[in-house]
Amino acid sequence: MALNEMKDLKIDEKERLTVDYVKGILQPTPTCETWDQIWNFQAKPDDLLISTYPKAGTTWTQEIVDLIQNKGDLEKSKRAPTHIRIPFIEWIIPGIGCGLEQASAMPSPRTLKTHLPIDLVPPSFLEKNCKMIYIARNPKDNMVSYYHFHRMNKGLPDPGTWEEYFESFLAGKVCWGSWYDHVKGWWEAKDQHRILYLFYEDMKKNPRHEIQKLAEFMGNNLDDEVLEKIVHHTSFDIMKDNPMANYSSVPTAFMDHSISPFMRKGTVGDWKNYFTVAQNERFDEDYKKNMANTSLTFHFQF
């Protein structure tokens, strides 16, 4: 076997990251090992934090925010891949990068990303009264999208079969914890802090309106031409073909798009292609029980 073939073989056989718990929340082990540094991260008053439960429209929102900041200048937003432009503060991939280090090296004003539930967000973000953007997605579509992301991403545990993953998600035994706790925690915090809480389904239905809302929250006024440009260039089909947004720059050893593309469908209601009748009934019962004590509501289809 040639040396380059051996190297390829080594990369292709790369093992998945292991996971452990941080304050009851499953996280990749490298995150757990540096938790004290993450928790003590020092935010600055002009930091902007984008937060979501995984696969709830994070990259989409990052691209929108970056284009708003660049006043619709596409070339500026193509300066680097998403994960370089907007550091993921708790994410550490050996050999790829460390979000904390990236964030610390960035000049202000910084735009940062997290998937942490509100209780685990470094306290300095709240103490410094930073602006935070939260995107929530209906749990059925979120589960399906997260399942496929697990399949292609070796930075996360193997999800097992769809049936097995359904049980794990329902029990909150997935990385970043329970979907219910995550969306409800941020929802309850939005009245005490500078949090703009948006919904994936609203962004799909009326992107122009939601992007305008985002821009206003960020303190930017967009004219109609710039707004339309941002709407167009952050549409699913355009972003799917944008190498600076579709994670194709990440080595296949970590994200294998042949298993499932990072940007897969971006639709509302895809869960109907996966949930059995029995799973749907069980999920609806679980949803009703867990959402009984909140004013938060979701749309599962248009």
From TrEMBL:
Protein name: Sulfotransferase
Gene: SULT1C4
InterPro entries: P-loop_NTPase (IPR027417), Sulfotransferase_dom (IPR000863)
Enzyme class (EC, first level): transferase
Organism in which the protein naturally occurs: Trichechus manatus latirostris
GO molecular function: sulfotransferase activity
GO cellular component, one term: cytoplasm
Residue ranges of every copy of the Sulfotransferase domain listed in the record: 45-294
Keyword annotations from UniProtKB, A to Z: Cytoplasm, Transferase
